[in-house]
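Q: What structure does this chain adopt?
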Amino acid sequence: MSANGQNRHARTTRLARKLAVAGTGAAVLALPLIGATSASAATPAAATAATAATTYPDNLDGWIRESLDIMEQHGIPGTYEGIHRNIMRESSGNPLAINNWDINAINGTPSKGLLQVIAPTFQAYHVPGTSWDPYDPVANITAACNYAADRYGSMDNVFSAY
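A:
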């Protein structure tokens, strides 16, 4: 028994009941704290932040930021500046851009989307969790950055057509 007259099991059960009331996310995050000397009041706030979905604006800034978050989850390097610079050069920010005049187009595989990716490259470097549509801005950015990382180390190292 502890000094306050309660055994460890009773304290743990009471803490678990309190966490269950706070929500399952808080309980899951707080489970490692059971048995610790005290539980922090920040645990429910941390759970709320961890479970809150990030929303992105449906514009170039939002597409780049969402892609960067996905890239981080998959260990794909790149920065906002490097991605933005290449998008502006390749498509001027138009997610529906298509190149119908270069050698890829002549060979039947035109470059598409924000970062002008051809279909075989998009398919080979597609990142799980993104759309299979090469015109989808987030899927296009993420696949192109995955390709650039494999070929050049990062999209940040690309300064011309790639």
